[in-house]
């Protein structure tokens, strides 16, 4: 079993829809949770970062962590065609020392149609 | 604008060849990473380095080695390329105290025939 599971999609939605992207994980030691966005032919870039449980909002994006269920989500409100990308969740157990490793999900392909 | 650059976007090599992939960052970051990205498997860490001349094995180091002689440069070496090393290779860097915020290069698509 993979440490981090993520549905690869593709997920196709109309412009303006609310998008929900999810990851589940098995390692209860994970405390740091990230969402990266990767456009075609580019490297991933950090979108959201949360520590432990709870919600974090940044514009149209909301990251949610439920440690009791080992489940994290990224919500995108009023989705735009420019949101079309692959979204990767990433997690870590340790604080940031000496190049701490991140464990990535496989990524979900999102397509927003205009 | 912060930047991580990789030496090639596309590379085609033959089985058994020695392959060098080079990564340069201009952000004075302490940490540097090499990943490979394959469909359905996501990003898998090959090696990382938290300082000059320091290296740590990631999850899939077999068949690879690395070199970090200068802070800004991190090289990935395939000693004897094999077809199962055909993949997208991504380099990343981060500050020591912000390891969650990794900056990635555009990737090198390596094909081994």
Quick tags:
heterodimer, A: 114 residues, mainly beta, six-stranded mixed beta sheet, five-stranded antiparallel beta sheet, 11 strands, globular, B: 113 residues, seven-stranded mixed beta sheet, four-stranded antiparallel beta sheet, 0% helix
What does this structure look like?
The complex is a heterodimer of chains A (about 110) and B (about 110). With about 110 residues, chain A is mostly beta strands. Helix content of chain A is about 0%, strand content about 55%. Chain A is globular. In chain B, about 0% of the residues lie in helices and about 55% in strands. In chain B, the strands form 2 sheets. In chain B, strands 2, 4, 5, 6, 9, 10 and 11 form a 7-stranded mixed β-sheet that branches. In chain B, strands 1-3-8-7 form a 4-stranded antiparallel β-sheet, with no helix packed on it. The model of chain B has no long low-confidence stretch (mean pLDDT about 95). Classes of the chains: A mainly beta (about 110), B mainly beta (about 110). The interface between A and B is medium-sized, with 26 and 34 residues.
Largest β sheet strand count, sense and barrel closure of chain B: 7 strands, mixed
State which percent range the strand residues of chain A make up. Answer: over 45%
Low-confidence stretches of chain B: none
Number of helices of chain A: 0
Q: Tell me the Rg of chain B in angstroms.
A: 13 Å
Biggest interface, and residues per chain?
A-B, 26 and 34 residues
The CA-CA distance between the termini of chain A, in Å, is 37 Å
Biggest sheet descriptor of chain A = 6 strands, mixed
Gap between N and C termini of chain B: 37 Å
The pLDDT mean of chain B sits at 94
Q: Classify the helix fraction of chain A into a percent range.
A: under 10%
Output the radius of gyration of chain A. Answer: 14 Å
What structural class results from the helix and strand content of chain A? mainly beta
H/E topology pattern of chain B? EEEEEEEEEEE
H and E string of chain A: EEEEEEEEEEE
* Continuous helix count of chain B: 0
Query: Which class of secondary structure composition applies to the elements of chain B?
Result: mainly beta
- Give the overall average pLDDT of chain A: 92
Count of DSSP E strands of chain A? 11
Strand runs of chain B, count: 11
